Amino acid sequence: MFEGRNRIRYFVILGVMALFFVAAVWRLTQLQIVQGNEFREQSERRFIRTLPITAPRGEILDRHGRPLVTNRPGFFVRFHRLDVPRNERDWANDQLNMSINNILQIAREANIPYTTTFPISGPPFMFDFRDEDIEIENQQRQTWLSQNNLNALLTADEVIDHFRRRYRISEEYTPEELRDIISIRFEMEQRHFSLTAPFTFAADVDMSVVQIIRERTMDLPGVVVDIEPIREYANGSLAAHTLGRVAPITQEEFARLREYGYGLNDLVGRDGMERVLERHLRGTDGHRSVEQTRAGVTAQILEVRPPVNGHYAILTLDLRVQEAAERALEQTMQQLRNDSRWDSRRRGANAYSGAAVAVCVNTGQVLALATWPTYDPSNFNELFEEMRVDPLRPMLNRALQGTYAPGSTYKMVPALAALEEGIIPTNGRVWCGGAYFNPALGNFQPRCMGVHGSLDVAQALSVSCNVFFYNVGWRTGIDRMTHYARQLGFGELTGIELDERRGVLASPAHTESQGRAWMAGNTVQAAIGQTYHNFTPVQLANFMATIANGGTRYRLHLTKEIRDSVTNEIIERTEPEIKQIVDMSEESHRVIMQGMRQATVTGTARGAFAGFPIATGGKTGTAQTGGHSNGLFVGFAPFDNPQIAVAVVIEDGVGGSRVAPVAREMFAAYFGLNEESEDVAFLPRNTLIR
Predict the structure, then answer these.
(1) What's the whole-model pTM score?
(2) Tens digits of residue pLDDT in 471-508
(3) Into which CATH architecture does domain 319-564+572-670 fall?
(4) Nearest to 185 by CA among 164, 206, 207
(5) What's the rounded Cα separation, in Å, for the pair 648 and 653?
(6) 3-state class of 268 per DSSP?
(7) What are the sequence ranges of the domains in the chain?
């Protein structure tokens, strides 16, 4: 067909074409087969991000270094926003909605708790602000709609439709799935979900769930499982009200704390010492720079800056005393309820709540701050609704916020006032014939629990004679009693770091402020701790410590030291702080102390302390409230060298003698009477604890 020169040209062209074909095949083979995996990884490994590494919070220890709050590793399920070109945003949005729907299915099957604040339930869709008051619920609905720039007249269905269009959620999902996807998208929006701010869907998930997520990676684009520290309360519910808990930061907190480096996925101390010590316990987050695939999966770690742990806190609490207080409260209440079956008046049948406090007599350090009932901070969120409606109010810190009439535990106040003001000499005596007669009281003739005959101050405290203190209280007068009561801390804040109530010190000024008149009978009732007196258990404990040490009232505190988690250097130390020197002579102190000593040997508390190897002093109290009697006890030990002072209150506790065993158990724990030696650095019990 081709001849001569044309034939040669033909073969040259054919050879060149064959050469190009072979080269193309070879190159394609190299790209797709030989180096295919490498180039595929390079094409996917194109997004570089800097992600935070959460710093562990500082641990919280008791005064002897025993752990109260520590950390452990936990799995966090998070969404990372997909970084895609503008023309692929719709695809990324569909992927996110699909991923949310799939992770919600896993969460329902595995019973994983997650947080959502979207206030619409259903279907059928309806606003759900969980308030029994319709007016308040309507107000909350109006506020929420306004905050989200929505018309105040929109129905729940219209709001759902608004967010469906806003988040471009397709119609392939059921109404239930639609509402759930919207709730998560709404939460993401509230927490500023972005390329640099992942969204935490669930914390502390089980390894079995992590395995499911890893197996379904293709169905969960953008979902990543991180390992981060989880707060662990080493002793369960022990001291829960004092230690507090951590929780996700709120919008209001973020606005206040963002300048300190907080993010919307951070945890903060919500209450208790976790909140008080937030600035110390929070560490400095690190970061890692990573390359990620389009699906949000980390392909390579480029750089890591490790986090710095938060400082650790040493509290003044004594773990063993705290344990003894909570255990004894529970057991004593159970015994009271059991015994009520044989009581004709069913006294003690409602003994379910109470508090116990222990403080160092010479420093104001708090050794125990027990409230019953209590709760476990680790499952607070799961049980919140149940606790919120519980009539026993387990979330109430009764030691600091419960206020109680002190009953006869208050009698040291009129005793001190009468002695210091010269109303009665230290050896002066008053006759008790079983009832108190005073013309100024009209027909009101208060009675005593017995006929005690002639008594001096110490004997009156020992047997808790009401007639003695009616007489002394009337002669002393309410103003002078109130003066000494304030010096001893009643009606005053103790200064403790946590929220506390001031309480009410009965006086004419207080009753007038409440629109009531002060009556003559109020004065004699106030002298035995009744009428309008209402004090917190922590005030009673501080009162007892002040009496025991001779009249020095300290500011109470829970923080002993803050130390650097790396160097162990002391960052901050709390020193004893005197708030008041009480007008108390040595002779008045001696008489009152002797009366409290007799109370635990031959008086009203003798049964609780029979055979106890350490000399103690104390005072029982029974306060009539609403048809039943609260039981109270205040005391200290050792008698000759007071170191620890306690206060115990049990609602419907029948009487002070029935609750005094709680104090005995706290004393025993403090002095190590019921335990074998531990490998901890105990301070000598006969030295001043600072």
Answers:
(1) 0.84
(2) 999 999 999 999 999 999 999 999 999 999 999 999 99
(3) 3-Layer(aba) Sandwich (3.40)
(4) 164
(5) 10
(6) strand
(7) 4-34, 319-564+572-670
